[in-house]
Design brief:
Helix content: 55-70%
CATH class of the largest domain: Mainly Alpha
Number of domains: 5
Structural class: alpha+beta
CATH topology of the largest domain: Multidrug efflux transporter AcrB transmembrane fold
Distance between the termini: 40 Å
Number of strands: 24
Radius of gyration: 34 Å
Number of helices: 35
Strand order of the largest sheet: 5-6-4-19-24-21-23-22
Length: 1006
Amino acid sequence: MQGKGLIQFLVIAVTIACLYSLSFTFVTRKVERDAAAYAKGDIAKEKAYLDSMAGEVVYNLGIAKYTYREAKGNEIALGLDLKGGMNVTMEVSLQELIRNLANNPKDGHFNKALENANARSKSSQSGYVDLFVQELKKLSPNTSLASYFATKDNSAYVKPNSTDAEVQRFLEREAESAIDNTFKVLRTRIDKFGVTSPNIQLQQGTNRILIELPGVTDEDRVRKLLQGSAKLEFWETYDNMEIYPMLENVNTALATAQKNAEKASNDNPATTANAADTADAGLLATLGAGKDSLATDSLENQLAQQNPLFNVLRPVTVMAPNNQVVLASGPAVGYARLRDTAKVNRLLSDPVVKQIIPSNVKLLWAVKPSPRTPDQLELYAVKPSGVNAGPVLSGNVVTDAKDDFEPETNNPMVTMYMNSEGAREWRRITAAAAPKSPNESGQAIAIVLDGVVYSAPSVSGEIPNGISQITGNFTIEDTKDLANVLKAGRLPTTAKIVEEAVVGPSLGQAAIDAGVNSSVIGLVIVLIFMIAYYNRAGLVANVAVLFNVFFIMGVLASLNAVLTLPGIAGIVLTMGTAVDANVLIYERVREELRLGKSIRQAISDGYKHAMSSILDSQITTFLVGLILFFFGSGPILGFATTLMIGIITSLFTSIFISRVIFEWMLNKGWSIALSNPWSENTLQKANYAFVQNRRKFYLVSGIIVVIGLASIFTKGFSLGVDFQGGRTYTVRFEKPVDLEEVRSNLNNAFGMTTEVKTFGADNQVRVTTAYHIEETSDEADKDVLEKLTSGLEKIQGNDYEIASSQKVGPTIANDMKVRAFYAGIAAVIVIALYILLRFRKWQYSLAAAITTAHDAIVILALFSVLDGVVPFSMDIDQHFVAALLTVIGYSINDTVVVFDRLREYLGLSKYKKEGFGETINLAINKTLSRTVITSLTVIFVLAVLFVFGGEVIRGFSFAILVGIIVATFSSIFLAAPMVADLQGNGPAEETDSAVANKAPLKPAKA
């Protein structure tokens, strides 16, 4: 085996890397177990414990130390369906943007065009600006766009004589800028919210932002936080020297409080034990007056006790010319390590400290560390001196801001423009803040967005015209961010929640249990089956499978991927497909052994001859995963990620790790058996006449497809809420409920037909309603919830809880349907193109495309026929689309293996004289054992997933389970035989009379 040393090095290196990535998860889980043990069920205590640990080092590797916050950022994050929490899609209102950019004109054509564009956007993939321009031109073809948008605020970009194309480009730029700025504002707010492992993504090409907040329980607070307007403000500031005496007093008061707490603890040891119940408990914990800090007599600890505040918040100082350390001038009054900011906040919010800080002093953190202190955050002191003791100026006076360069030095800077009202106020403010003499420095004005300081430039002189240049130690990225912040203060639009999903922690825990159970059982079944069928070689495959699961988890952790329930399903599915490469290799090795080769030579040739089939089959499945990744969203991304990672890791483990083990066993002189007595000759003598009987199989498939299409066009589908829009709730009752009673009560409450289905157990239902489907406001949400509650409360003597909820607006639902359709079409086209490139024959490509389309239609038909018949959800939703594409990938995986063997035989001289149909039969028969064994392995695993995987993915696992059976049928009985029909009357094809004289589907006579 060539390169054995390199392979061994790679295995060791990847193993160490995965262990490192996974170690963070073990560390954070330990901290969280400690928090749970300390809190004893008190959620507030548990949260306080974890908050206090945020900046503490919990993982020490010697060369690197990690705080709990840092370790948490590197662990395997759990998605909402596993952890509970909130998932929202926010949509930036471009209709509002365009109206505001035109200063809200009363023109009927203008407003009608906006209404029409809004309606069309729900079913069109075109951009909103483009739709608006089209509609306006229909209504008023002779009116120029400039007549609406050549306003004073837009004068820098739109002139009265600007062409329509120029104005449209301006609108598109403003729309893109509004979306980007909203994204940045939301990202900053979420970072401040304190959610562990949040995920925020800008959905490229749309005006939507996807946000995942695991573990969130206060949904109302999240909605207010996300939908509030960006609050840009300008604040006067204090100088560091003015604030230092106050901070010194705070430091002294905290030191005194700590001494008193320590004395009380020494006088009465029970005080420490009962500290959690005393008024000073939070302060005592923050100051570190616990068992470790009080027992340690180190210099560092003594300094911490003497200077509790200054130990974590260091004053801003500089070196004077006489080499003495003195206070620095400027608005920054202190800086703290990132991990200590939470501790500083707790100290400053203590009642003892609040009495010292006057009401006219406000302390705000910088938005991010400065380049000179990359691990520290500055604290600023601002002066409430404006209206109602607030900022001196509001950010809504800013009309524009641009990142630019200083003419003299070419250093990055920001140019800010204000309207006439703002310019007047800004002139007064800057005149007061300007230096009074050449030797003085001007006062700083803090630029604050949502309570965070983005910049605090000093005023160098009065600014009379409202045009300001902000300079400093900026990078180009800094100026871009600051310009966006200034523009965010006057965002002429809002962002609203148009899709929302809330998963309760109890439902999340049930999903975790179901996922873990299905994973373990599925893994055990795969391991047992491989040993039972392949004997000692099965043990080698099992080692590869275990390494594969380990590598998948390690890679997920290293990529900071979010693990979802469909992601677990992807891992479980990968367990089944991971053995596919081993099965291909083992079946080929067994063929080589029957030719009389030695075990060493047979293993070498088996790996070599199986490689083409392995790569082709796995690449096609990977391509499907790639399509899912680009077209999917939410949990489907998790499934696609694990599927693609699983394919890569399974290739590595089955090809390299199993080969290294075989080489080691051969060198040790061990006996290697590739079968047990009962499995040694399974399907080895198969000689079925597939081609000769192909028309029978066409007929069977045709009948199934016709029946299915009849059901699709008459009965239709039950669409999930993500494809039809509306709101859906999972309701768990204390006792089993009568489904008709629930449905009747809710129909009366909503005044319309409500969909109610059993969801798993008979005490759990899923309710879907189209009430207020067109409205996504908070008021509409409350109204729907009130109607739902009023209907549920009529069920006497049966308490209930809403375990999860989901809201999808009609625009989102339509977009998901369109994306799902394109995903299916793209999958078929990509696979057909790959087959064409690999096999260089259109017949192979067309046969593959037809059979994959056949499989998709059969699965769709099955979901239509069985909807309402089986006792679980058969909704067509994103999960179903993922299942359908997975089936397509598996179907082509099977088909490619047969095609690959057919290509191999057609390239050998001894088969060129055979009829084309006979060669196809031979290729199918020779790969039949591999097809059946792989399919059975995957079916076993999917059956476990279907039974134990939980109700959330039962329809998903059922679709893949049935799809694998259908895909196995089509790859054996349809795909390769269809090539014979598409090939035409070539020289190698059997004549019709020869075909007619063949026996039916059974082993041919010798």
